[in-house]
Amino acid sequence: MKAGNIKRLTGRWIFIGTCAGILATGCCVLTRDTKPSVVQIDLGKLLNARVVTTQADGRLQLADHSLNHGFDSVLITRSAMEVAKSGKLNPLPDSGSFAANQEHPDVQLPYGTAGGGPQVHQSTNKTETYAIPVPANHYAQMQLFFISAAGPTPISVKLRYADGSTEQRETQVADFYFLPKAGVKDWFVLAEDFGKVNLKAEMTESIHHYIHGYNLNPNPAKGLRQIEITKENSGSVLNLFGVTGRLASGNDVKY
After folding, report:
1. Where in the chain is the domain with CATH 2.60.120?
2. CA–CA separation, 133 vs 159, rounded Å?
3. pLDDT in tens, 83-121
4. Which of 88, 97, 111, 204 has the most CB atoms at less than 10 Å from its CB?
């Protein structure tokens, strides 16, 4: 038998070949990759606005909405900035990907994969509630990524579990010109210090803007099925850029 195979002998599984650790009983403990499993939640038809100007084959794919009520708060990717000759500003990465760090796992925002289509869910200054189905599973963490423009936005978030129970979170999304206030629980920065352009891809500010992340802290003992976000009535505009989950799982598999 080749090394690495598993064979059942005398009523139990025995690992034949190299193993990270052999117990005194002869059983084997296999250590999984310690990198957590990550789920990028598909926002599907909830995506309703383009707020990031991109490019394809050297041609601009312009945004069709500003982040706020005007026309001068639009984001732009690095390659689009070069095509548009927007000026010296800090752009967003073309890919929409953000490598894992101590605050979040690998994150893929829809703007990097949407092509010429919508990239975010935008809620204007009215109250709105919308639901995000998630692949039913147990999650160690679930994170929402927002930009609030024209001021902060109060929100409430309801977590719906497979057993019919719910949990509620209430918080405020800071305006994207500001960092989260010191000591504010569960908020962090996904993308920082980027500039913005107008709907014509002309620079309006070079730096000092942020995409904020929010930890939902779901109960990992329960299967999460749906997230409901309510944007409360405010004068601000709320843009949901993405949702990423990290699955709850043990580090060891025992045979």
Report:
1. 38-250
2. 10
3. 999 999 999 999 999 999 999 999 999 999 999 999 999
4. 111
Number of Cα atoms under 13 Å in the Cβ half of residue 75: 30
Cβ-Cβ contacts under 8 Å for 80 (sequence gap 6 or more): 53, 54, 55, 60, 61, 86, 91, 94, 201
Residue 171 token pair: 């918080």
What is the reported pLDDT for 23?
35
* Short-list 218, 214, 206, CA closest to 180: 214
Fold of 38-250: Jelly Rolls (2.60.120)
Please answer whether residues 242 and 151 qualify as being in contact, where contact means their C-beta atoms are separated by less than 8 angstroms: no
Q: How far is CA 19 from CA 5, 28, 35, in A?
A: 10, 7, 19
The letter for the amino acid at 106 is: D
Which helix (H) or strand (E) segment holds residue 188: the answer is: strand 187-192
The structure tokens listed for 130 are 């919308």
pLDDT at 252 over 90: no
